[in-house]
Specification:
heterodimer; A: mainly alpha; four-stranded mixed β-sheet; 19 helices; 4 strands; B: 228 residues; mainly alpha; 9 helices
Amino acid sequence: MARFLRRLGSSAVGVGLGLAFGALVPAHGAFAHAHAQEAPLRAKLDSLRPLLEDARAALDAREARDIEAARLAAAAAATVDTFMVGLVTVVTPVEQAGLAREIFQIVWAEHFAVLERSRALDETVVSFQWSDEPVPIHVGSEDGAVELGARARRPQVEAAVRGAIASIVSRDLRRSHPDLAAWVRGDPLRPSPLEDAYRSVAATQSRATRGCLAGDIAACEHALDLREELDVRERLDAWYTPDERRALVAGWSDAQRSRFVGPSWDRCVLARAYDVCDTLLTEFRSDSSPLPGSVRETLLAYAIERGGAGAWERLLGDPEAGVRAALVEASGMSITELLVGWQTRLVAHRPETFQDVMPAGALSLLWTLLFAAFAMRSTRWRFD
Amino acid sequence: MYRSMLFLHWKQIKHFLTLTVLVSFALPLAAVNGLGTPAGSEGAGVEPYRFVTEFQDWLFVFPLLALAIGATLALSAWNWDHRMGHVYALSLPITRWEYTLQKMLAGVTLLTVPALALWLGAHVATATITLPEGLRAYPDELAIRYFFAILVTFALFFAMAAGTIRTTAIVVGAVVGVMFFGAIANDLLADHYAFFERVRMVDAFVDWMVNGTGPFGVISGSWSLIDV
């Protein structure tokens, strides 16, 4: 049938091309006559077009049905196992079930044990395959599929499992507490490493971040944008000195400058009109807060960790609560206690950039001695 | 004896060494060029993020230069001996291991020169800019890493070149062969042994060489002159 439809399609195209070619071939003198004949031919050609389109659609549908049938047949032939670890339902080829269970148990115990309930996890089945020849398992959700080739290493696999679960659980956050999700802009159950967060804080040009690193908890509160009661201008003032605000505007790209501001940019940057800088920042930037979501993730993760069992449910318990209130509720601590603990931990994770240089240097010295010994024992020539 | 070795090696390598000294000195200056504002000027040091991110572009050059210097110094140390059929060494009233040691010490002396040049250049580079609050310069640490990277590369190539060219070719060929054919062998073994499905021998070897206790561990760390 498919072949017949394909032939029909080809024939229709052939007829069309033939008619079109035939219409073009007549000599110049006969052009008017040919032109007169063209209309009925074109009408004929047009009348074939729906037939051609129908044939193509039928062919596409047939191919899709064949693929789906093959997929279903393969799925029926594949033996899969389904089990639960924590709140996660996992489906995996039966020969990988033991390994998958072990990996999910480790990841769950290490990162998600505080979860007692999750609507998103209840709704989702996670498929797991660590193989170069995955079998077709369809779970109906993209973030519920963990598929890695056999070359992937165990830490990569565990990271992928953690990422999949965190991504699913984040749906709870977006659904139950959109304001908090918009504030954190990431997966609090898979936060960035604290070393990276430290680097972000230290490399940000902001009086609030500098104060925060120096131990000023009020500055941390500002830097993390937790003072929801302040208006935009007050926040800008808490985040940046006037010169820093001017530097922010000065750093805008040429496209941003030409698109928005021209003379105002000049007044802010060149004439140092700081009120103009503030106007530009408030009107043309939706968010001028100094720290990225990756730093906020670490605070939220810390709050959940300190809150222990039930912290996630408490965090999402009151959708009307502000970010501060949600953090306090989840952690069971005052906002000051929470920030003091987080700041202490952050500072303790300052990356030791060259911490390894002396041990690595000593090791390379040992290797040098070993290579020297090899060189001296070579028997290229000797005369003693 | 050591002084003659040093002089001979210097004669062999003086043009290359002069060039690497200049490059080693200039590299940190080039890396900080355009970052921040000159020390003491208005608005100095207000772009910490740029310092950290833009310096990343230069990071690969430092270890590459160290590898090139180490390998060239080592091969040039034996070049003269191989060309003259080791006649000079045979004419000396010393054992081979003493001769090799003297030659190696002369090479190590020479390789400290580009390391010192980088140390000086890094100090000059950091003195020309005002670092934003929260960032620090690591000129000493960078120079130490640079020195050890040159040293271990020098030692490896020196040991290989101490034998015959044939030996060097065999060792290098074996390493390249393992890297190239090891993956294929791993795949073939994986068809029969489940262990090889999960363990990639070549990857594990490379990982050990640069991240574990292998000889190139010193190269895999940070090369940032400026960081938090």
